[in-house]
Specification:
about 40% helix, binds adenosine monophosphate, binds manganese (II) ion
């Protein structure tokens, strides 16, 4: 059962009356999670609050420009009056920080995943929003804080990454309207895009090509599966976050409806990314495996070996009615 949404006015009031706030993006944070967190953290600091983004893994190299003393790994950085999770809707999405999150007397969830149920004191979950950053924009407006260049660029980064630079089907009129308004706060849109998409290391290109070589096709090329192992990362010198674009590249192949990319984080930890082009509901597929996400982008984690995970997912895809 979904809980009903609190308004941004209500959440704004809660944040305004707090002194210390901790922000929790999901693990392996993407541009939306970091951009949303950075924008909110800057706003709270502007209001004179003690605010930090608590993380549990390194920020991807191409997103580091959004962090300027905002993030911390220190669980004791502060005892928050309010914990806010952004771009995720369950403590399993920030496992090592879950207890810390729940310690706060008031918890808030701001998210756009339809699979999120609303587990916090106050929740605003809007699956219609292309990015959580759009919701953060609305929240900041409701709080009456001026959006400066840095806040604007963090929101823009979130929108840009979750919409594939305004290309994906989640992009709405409102997405463009918000982006347009951000120009009024002086954002340098081209520089943000360059930081995110055009600062690749050679190692990234090498791991992408290795991963794409593993591709298997099903249903006459309508579905593709590929993977990356720790060994492949060692051999290319790349890090796992540098494989983030692979699943989108797989989907971009002509005739592909469903792209599956499997990442070996550890011997028994396989994270699976799903993307679809037009009609397969990958949120449903990821829910089957205990994960979540959106209709066209979703993910889940399997606790088994890569070969077992590959077989399980392949079996599922072979039997998908929509693909036949
Ligand atoms: P990714 O493939 O990791 O980029 O994730 C695609 C989408 O699915 C993102 O919106 C994620 O937040 C969501 N997602 C990925 N993994 C999970 C998971 N294990 N549980 C819930 N949602 C997930
Ligand atoms: Mn995300
Ligand atoms: Mn998002």
């Amino acid at each position: 059962m979904k809980t009903s949404n609190s308004t941004f006015e209500e959440i704004g009031k809660i944040l305004s009356s707090a002194g210390k706030v901790l922000i929790f993006p999901h693990v392996n944070a993407d541009g939306d999670a970091i951009g949303s967190s950075a924008a909110l953290c800057r706003v709270l600091r502007k209001m004179g609050k003690d605010a930090f983004i608590l993380i549990e893994d390194d920020i991807a190299g191409n997103l580091k420009f959004l962090d300027d003393g905002l993030t911390t790994f220190d669980m004791d950085a502060l005892d928050a009056d309010v914990s806010v999770c952004v771009d995720c809707g369950e403590t399993g999405r920030f496992p090592k920080r879950a207890d810390k999150f729940m310690e706060a007397p008031v918890t808030v969830c701001i998210d756009h995943h339809g699979t999120s149920k609303g587990f916090c004191t106050y929740n605003h979950i809007d699956p219609g929003a292309a990015a959580t950053a759009q919701l953060i924009f609305r929240l900041i407006k409701a709080m009456g804080v001026e959006i400066d260049k840095q806040i604007g660029e963090a929101i823009f980064a979130g929108i840009l990454t979750d919409t594939g630079s305004f290309r994906y089907s989640n992009t709405q009129k409102e997405t463009h309207l918000i982006a347009a308004e951000l120009y009024d706060s002086g954002i340098d849109a081209a520089t943000v895009a360059q930081e995110i998409f055009e600062t690749m290391r050679m190692e990234r290109l090498r791991i992408e090509s290795r991963a794409i070589e593993t591709m298997a096709t099903l249903h006459g090329g309508k579905a593709v599966l590929a993977y990356v192992t720790q060994k492949m990362l060692e051999e290319t010198g790349a890090s796992m976050d540098e494989t983030e674009g692979v699943v989108g590249q797989l989907r971009s192949i002509a005739g592909v409806e469903l792209a599956v990319f499997m990442k070996e984080y550890g011997p028994e930890e396989i994270k699976v990314s799903l993307r679809s082009k037009k009609y397969v509901d990958v949120a449903e597929m990821s829910s089957h495996f205990g994960g979540g996400g959106h209709e066209r982008a979703a993910g889940f984690t399997l606790r088994c070996s890569m070969s077992e995970a590959f077989d399980r997912v392949k079996e599922y895809v072979m039997n998908m009615a929509e693909m036949k």
